[in-house]
# Entry
Amino acid sequence: MEILKTNQTGDFANAAPVPATMGMLCEGTVRLVTGGRVLIQTDQENVWATLALAYPVQLSSGDRVLTIGEGQSWYLVGVLQTSNSHTIYFEGDLELQASGSLKLSGLQGVSVKGPSIGFCAERINIVADTLSERFRSVRRVVKEGVFQRIGKLRTTIKGSYRIKADRIVQRAERDVSIDGRKINLG
# Structure
């Protein structure tokens, strides 16, 4: 590749070609991370490289990276393999948007953690083989109705169980059993 150097008037007439060097593209192994600089062992030598990634990353000794440069000017431009889980950290708020749908997936699972997590949608669909929930307290407000189709239902309550309704209708195709030390009706 060559670039053209302009003459003093700023035009390219009679300009002499000047070779442009891109530097070497090398794979390397991280040896030390300090500040925004990384000591990388390449096949030829150890070089200090400046992080030049579009996203923040935590690197550790032994990670395989891609560097470009020459002489004293080296830049880390890619992470090929890391022993750590990747952490992308941003100061302040972060919003992810897509003009289409946004999907998150993990081969070993997906976790969401925070002091407060909110969902706002017209419809939420959850499909799973097993659902486990654990709460200290639950308050649920449904304006219209809750419809459930359940194979079996077992509820164990440590304290009292109260239902308040305008009308209660319970039907069974077979037996109804009520067991208690004392049953008050009316």
Remarks:
- Confidence is low (pLDDT under 50) at residues 1-20.
- The radius of gyration is 32 Å.
- The chain has no helices and seven strands.
